[in-house]
Amino acid sequence: MSETQAVKKERPLSPHLQVYKPQLTSFTSILHRACGIALSAGLLLIVCWLVAAASGKEAYNALYEFVSGPIGTFMLFGWSAALYYHLCNGIRHFFWDFGLLFKIENAYRAGYAVFAVAALLTFATWYCALSFAPEMSVPYIEETISIVIEEGAAE
Question: Cα 105 vs. chain centroid, distance in angstroms?
């Protein structure tokens, strides 16, 4: 066997994702990036909402019907969960920028705290949002938009 073939056989192979044991720190990092992408995608729904509001009550009510339905509500719930997770994990990264929480046990505690606080904020937000849901109906929105349009026309 030549010398170059012997060197090639002794060289270690590059590790792959299947080789590594899943860790909380790697999972939180991947989820942070995925939530950033989800927040960017969710921004499209907000832009659609603004365009619908500017287009008139028919477009706004159509979008409202979608958002208040099961698919729209699920999308908004996921977007708010991504928002709070990304926020809390960003605060954890801010601590890391100052050299804090680098010990492995502190990193794991902070990771679990990020999940707990993000879940708490998400459910608290949705509890408050759904508590006021009966007041937010399409006729209420139609009345509000017509009042704004009438006031704008009077000027």
Answer: 26
Distance CA 27, CA 17 (A): 12
Q: Which CATH number is associated with domain 27-154?
A: 1.20.1300.10
pLDDT in tens, 125-150: 999 888 876 655 554 455 555 555 56
Query: What are 145's two structure tokens?
Result: 């938009």
pLDDT, tens digit, for every residue of 46-58? Answer: 999 899 989 988 9
Q: What's this model's pTM, rounded to 2 decimal places?
A: 0.74
Joined tokens for residue 75: 């999308």
Q: Which residues contact 53 (CB under 8 A, 6 or more apart)?
A: 60
Residues 6 or more apart whose CB falls under 8 angstroms from that of 25 comprise 107, 108, 111
Q: Cα 13 to the chain's mean position, in Å? A: 36
User: Which phi and psi (to 5°) does residue 136 adopt?
Assistant: -95, 90
Alpha helices, DSSP H only, in 11-137? Answer: 24-55, 57-68, 70-97, 104-131
